[in-house]
């Protein structure tokens, strides 16, 4: 038989969150603010637009894990800084890391890649993307949000993978064909297609296209609507709506990363 003290201790253990104050200032590429349960994650590089890097790759993987562990996060807003969401674009055939990797160098990247998107999708709170400008590096991250808003000057492009001489095996190969349709997704990845916000809305990637200055405020407005529902309704709805994609990642993400890594290894 469990005593009252033991029962309280067990309850505290189950409910123990990843305290916001312990992780909010941990990251160089993510600024976090939270008010009334609405957490905003603003991606940046030295307070300017996010320049995708190994640091950002490492930090997003860990940040999504910490955010998902904290049950006080009721709605999440993902946004960028300035006039871009993520970049910079890579010139065709000029990826700086192509054919330079050793297995020892690639191993932590591969490990983070296996967890980054799953950690994001494991957050049991609705996620809203407020895409404030072009997303030309890892556009799949905001596009797997439950609600996707984009500024009128936003466009989507995958410059870092096939056009840059790399296999799109770290999630793009799953997310883009699923969201766009198989043929559209393959075309997007193989040609480096630049997809405007209006075009993205037409094919269902984006829910609303707004003036640049209105995107974040619209995300906050929607967050205040979502938070009116009971917490378990929000959490379980998020869970059931993301489970199919989580299952797809489980089977295909590690395989894609392995092929991407093999194609990046030194050839001599």
The SSE string, one letter per element, is HHEEHEHEHEEHHEHEHH
How would you characterize the largest beta sheet? 6 strands, mixed
- Count the helices. How many? 10
Low-confidence stretches at least 5 residues in length (pLDDT < 50)?
Answer: none
Description:
The radius of gyration is 19 Å and the shape is globular. The chain has helices at residues 4-15, 20-23, 54-69, 103-121, 140-143, 172-180, 182-191, 197-202, 215-226, 231-264, and strands at residues 30-35, 38-43, 75-79, 127-131, 147-151, 155-156, 195-196, 208-210. Helix 4 (103-121) runs antiparallel to helix 10 and helix 6 packs across helix 7. It has 268 residues and is an alpha/beta fold. Strands 1-2-3-4-5-8 form a six-stranded mixed sheet, with helices on both faces.
List keywords for this structure.
10 helices; alpha/beta; two-stranded antiparallel sheet; 268 residues; 8 strands
Write a brief structural summary.
The protein is built from ten helices and eight strands. The protein is of the alpha/beta class.
Sequence-ordered SSE layout with sheet pairings:
Layout: H1 4-15, H2 20-23, E1 30-35, E2 38-43, H3 54-69, E3 75-79, H4 103-121, E4 127-131, H5 140-143, E5 147-151, E6 155-156, H6 172-180, H7 182-191, E7 195-196, H8 197-202, E8 208-210, H9 215-226, H10 231-264
Helix pairs in contact: 3-4, 4-10, 6-7
């Amino acid at each position: 038989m469990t005593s009252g003290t033991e029962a309280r201790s067990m309850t505290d253990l189950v409910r123990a969150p990843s305290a916001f104050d312990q992780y909010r200032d941990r990251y160089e590429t993510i600024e976090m603010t939270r008010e009334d349960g609405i957490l905003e994650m603003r991606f940046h590089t030295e307070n300017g637009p996010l320049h995708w890097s190994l640091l950002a790759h490492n930090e997003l993987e860990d940040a999504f894990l910490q955010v998902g562990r904290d049950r006080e996060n009721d709605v999440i807003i993902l946004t960028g800084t300035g006039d871009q969401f993520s970049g910079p674009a890579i010139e065709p055939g000029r990826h700086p890391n192509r054919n330079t990797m050793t297995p020892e160098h690639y191993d932590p990247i591969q490990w983070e890649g296996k967890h980054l998107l799953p950690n994001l999708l494991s957050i049991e709170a609705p996620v809203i993307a407020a895409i404030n400008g072009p997303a030309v590096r890892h556009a799949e991250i905001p596009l797997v949000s439950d609600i996707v808003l984009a500024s009128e000057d936003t466009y989507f492009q995958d410059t870092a993978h096939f056009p840059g001489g790399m296999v799109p095996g770290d999630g793009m190969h799953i997310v883009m064909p699923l969201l766009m349709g198989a043929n559209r997704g393959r075309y997007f990845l193989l040609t480096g297609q630049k997809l405007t916000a209006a075009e993205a809305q037409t094919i269902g990637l984006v829910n609303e296209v707004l003036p640049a200055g209105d995107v974040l405020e619209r995300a906050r407005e929607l967050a205040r609507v979502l938070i009116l529902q009971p917490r378990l309704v929000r959490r379980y709805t998020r869970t059931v709506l993301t489970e199919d994609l989580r299952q797809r990642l489980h089977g295909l993400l590690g395989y894609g990363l392995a092929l991407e890594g093999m194609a990046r290894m030194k050839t001599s």
